[in-house]
Design brief:
single chain, about 400 residues, alpha+beta, Fructose-1,6-Bisphosphatase, Chain A, domain 1, D-Maltodextrin-Binding Protein, domain 2, 8-stranded mixed beta sheet
């Protein structure tokens, strides 16, 4: 490999490139969502092209981030755990249909959502919990498969907050697990928040006093997407992909199984501003809100603002649909309807992290009436309508809702 195939530029704070936003990103009005520049507080590594041999690995990428931004060094440890967990889950998914596999079938239990848990749901949830716990950088997590936020400080202990940097993780361990049997792509979604530095447990507290203090610390999971420090998803498909954002663009890595490393394959992903693809469960169309019905009908007839006639591409697995939307453009949505007015996707560990990734790629994410990233969850498993994707197309949906009010 020639040296000029791979260049790392250490960007100064006066660079025209966006900086990683460790603090809360921007706010916008509910009728016009525009992606604003994040505060220039940290520096970003820039890889000017994809290396054709061993490549820029995720480890190398994160080490450059840590070198330029010592204050977020602990994030590299968390992403090391996420990387390992995604490799392990990828192997479990690929082997899940073998007759000898112990991941076949249902666990015989129902999760807090009222959904039957597959063995693979439970196994991947435990795997990801352990991987994150043993980083020592995580205080609390919330998962689709857990009834309540989980304290990772140890058995029979209250929430323990050290003086060092601590984070809160929220995740869906295996999105689309019901599709595994059919070989349809599945994924893992993860969001990372900063732990509230004011969250502390009095070592001398007893009884209900301790319980109340722990509850306040566990409430760290109930943060809006604007507080996200980082978000990522892993897609288990023809290849295993890991896509992440640290608040300065969206980057995609592909697992090279010969090397056992995630290699940078999609540097600084930019979603097309407009497209001609919709990704909805159109069987629910009669139950959608009128503004969305009318907008989708115009798109399918070629009478929308772009004048393009839209086609439909729907996998039924959020990670797979969003990944395709990021690369090719379009609009993915699971809107509210008469049966499920708040939609079916969970705000905390599906809607917000995926919205962060899409927005950092130049797209938009809305419920139709408000920006998904700005909604503060009231409960861990709160659901939210989601419409995300290409900027101009999603803005058309936002304008239709605004005009209907």
């Amino acid at each position: 490999m020639k040296l000029n195939l791979f260049t790392v530029l250490l960007v100064s704070t006066t660079s025209t490139l966006s900086a990683f936003s460790v603090s809360r990103p921007f706010r916008a009005s509910s009728t016009a969502l525009h992606v604003a520049s994040a505060p220039q507080k940290t520096k970003a590594p820039v890889f000017d092209e994809v290396c054709e041999t061993t490549g820029v690995t995720l480890k190398r990428f994160m080490s450059e981030v840590a070198m330029l931004n010592p204050d977020i060094t602990e994030l590299t440890v968390l992403f090391g755990a996420i990387e390992t967990a995604c490799k392990a889950i990828s192997n479990l998914v690929k082997r899940s249909q073998l007759p000898s596999s112990e991941t076949l079938g249902y666990q015989g239990e129902v999760n807090v959502q009222g959904e039957d848990q597959k063995k693979l749901d439970v196994i991947t949830n435990d795997l990801l919990k352990r991987a994150l716990r043993f980083t020592g950088r995580l205080g609390v997590l919330a998962s689709e498969e857990e009834d309540v936020p989980v304290d990772l400080s140890g058995a029979n202990k209250g929430v323990l907050i050290d003086e060092g940097e601590r984070y809160v993780a929220v995740f869906d361990p295996l999105d689309g697990s019901s599709n595994v049997d059919a070989g349809i792509p599945t994924g893992t979604i993860i969001g990372i928040y900063e732990h509230d530095e004011n969250c502390a447990i009095d070592p001398d507290c007893v009884g209900e006093d301790c319980t109340e203090q722990e509850a306040q610390c566990l409430a760290n999971t109930l943060q809006p997407g604007t507080n996200l420090v980082a978000a990522a998803y892993c897609l288990y498909s023809s290849s295993t992909f890991l896509v992440l954002t640290l608040g300065s663009g969206t980057y995609g890595f592909t697992l090279d199984e010969n090397l056992g490393e995630f290699v940078l394959s999609h540097p600084d992903i930019k979603i097309p501003e407009e497209s001609s693809i919709i990704s909805f469960n159109e069987a629910n169309t009669p139950n959608w809100d009128k503004p969305l019905q009318e907008t989708v009908a115009k798109w399918k007839a070629g009478k929308g603002k772009s004048g393009k006639k839209f086609s439909s591409r729907y996998i039924g697995s959020m990670v797979g649909d969003v990944h395709r939307t990021l690369l090719y453009g379009g609009v993915f949505g699971y809107p509210g309807d008469k049966k499920n007015p708040n939609g079916k996707l969970r705000l905390l560990y599906e809607g917000a992290p995926m919205s962060f990734i899409v927005e950092q790629a130049g797209g938009l994410s809305t419920t139709g009436k408000e920006r998904v990233m700005e909604i503060s969850p009231e409960v861990v498993h709160q659901r939210v309508p989601v419409i995300m994707g290409s900027k101009n197309d999603v803005q058309e949906v936002i304008d239709a809702y605004a005009a209907a009010q």
